[in-house]
What we know:
This protein is mostly helical.
Amino acid sequence: MGAGPLHLLNSGLAGRLEEEGHQVTVRSIDLPPDFRATEIASAFELSAALAGGVAEAAKIGSFPLVLSGNCGPAALGCVGGLRSRIKIFWFDAHGDFNTPETTRSGFLDGMALAAVTGRCWSGLARAIPGLKASQKAT
């Protein structure tokens, strides 16, 4: 799943969008080389970096199209980066609304929407610029 975005780019996605008249800037968000990665720390660090990139694009009036092979950082980073009242329509193969207490697998990506809505990982989510998680999910 993580190779999907690179596959799309290598298959010419940027060029095809440009052919349709869109201005395209490709930016990769990576962990700093000295970052001591763990799954949870990495996910929230990537979320914070993505929030900054999305905010920059939105500030200049660009449409931030995010390609990600990971629900968690993509959801948290995009919502934080947009920094305004938004609505989320979640279409996925699974609900991503588990918490550490309700998950059977422990899979962090299965908690993405729960983290965005403030249902779990709220301490780490507060470090993502612009993210104001609330529990008003319906």
